[in-house]
Design brief:
single chain; alpha+beta; 10-stranded mixed beta sheet; disordered N terminus; AraC-bd; repressor; HTH_AraC
């Protein structure tokens, strides 16, 4: 499993149990002893099931909500939900890891996580999360794969209003807003901020080399030599397993590094250099090509 973007290891240093406990304590969550049903309850809004790996109880409302702020570096351990989940980053950058890869969620964007999808979340900076949990009937039209979605002004206000309505137990208001929420989510633009996870050991080794240091300038030939494969074989693996070329995959990795650095307040020139670009113009071109906005424009959006 791929872990933190900044320090990724293919071999876990600790057992999964120890890592989950440490991650929960990192976030200031108190982990109680396991019950007879194998469930640990973490104060702070999450319950992690050891035997079934489900989070939360099954609510009667079609949509329920949770609001919580997390400190920099906090990690919510691996878990899954009975309901589909919209995770909205009101501020800060989230890194969400699933079996499909790494998803980067910038501020004022949201991530759709289907019901039953095991995932973990790492906070890159201080992050304010607003989460909506949708029952199966409401979420079927949103798909079975994770997707980073843009949030229009209306969608943002709807999510925040639903968090408030759930907090005040205003069921009637929640029911009235749910159809409009689903309509906006179905029409939301998808953002290509995804780092797919490989399964072939040679491809995993090549990807690991770049994930540890996205500023590396290795060519495909150099990576192929590093993993003991031909460049043609490695190129084919990128296309067949990750559904993108090596160049495009590396751009996504560098974009993830850039978003993390920008959320921490680094100047764009340093962000570009840390992401492996020799000039701000080349970095800006990549940034605009993927996100549809320049780095400067993105920073202005985030400051609103």
């Amino acid at each position: 499993m791929i872990g933190s973007f900044m320090a990724i290891s293919l071999v876990p240093v600790f057992s999964p149990r120890v890592r989950r406990l440490n991650a929960a304590r990192c976030c200031g969550l108190t982990v109680r002893p396991e019950s007879a049903y194998g469930v640990r309850i973490a104060k702070g809004g999450h319950s992690v099931s050891r035997s079934r790996q489900h989070v939360g109880s099954k609510p009667a409302w079609p949509v329920t909500a949770l609001a919580k702020d997390y400190p920099k570096g906090c990690q919510i351990p691996r878990h899954r939900h009975r309901r589909g989940q919209i995770i909205y980053a009101a501020s800060g950058v989230m890194q969400v890891t699933t079996r499909e890869g790494i998803w980067i969620v910038p501020p004022q964007r949201s991530l759709w996580v289907p019901a039953g999808m095991t995932h973990e979340i790492r906070m890159e900076g201080h992050v304010a999360i607003r989460t909506l949990y949708l029952d199966r009937g409401s979420s079927m039209s949103l798909g079975t794969h994770c997707r980073v979605l843009t949030a229009t002004g209306l969608l943002r206000e709807l999510m925040l209003a639903m968090v408030q309505a759930h907090r005040s137990r205003d069921r009637e208001r929640m029911l009235m807003m749910t159809p409009l929420l689903l309509h906006e989510l179905r029409g939301a633009e998808e953002m290509a901020i995804h780092i797919p996870s490989p399964s072939d050991p040679r491809l995993r080794k090549a990807c690991q080399r770049m994930l540890v240091d996205p500023s590396r300038t290795d060519t495909l030939d150099q990576l192929a030599q590093h993993v003991g494969a031909s460049s043609r074989t490695l190129a084919r693996l990128f296309e067949s397993e990750l559904k993108m070329t090596f160049a495009r995959w590396r751009q996504h990795v560098r974009l993830a590094r850039a978003l993390n650095r920008m959320s921490a307040g680094y100047p764009i020139k340093k962000v570009a250099r840390d992401a492996g670009y020799a000039s701000c113009s080349a970095f800006s071109a990549m940034f605009h090509r993927i996100l549809g906005v320049t780095p400067t424009g993105y920073m202005k959006q985030m400051s609103v």
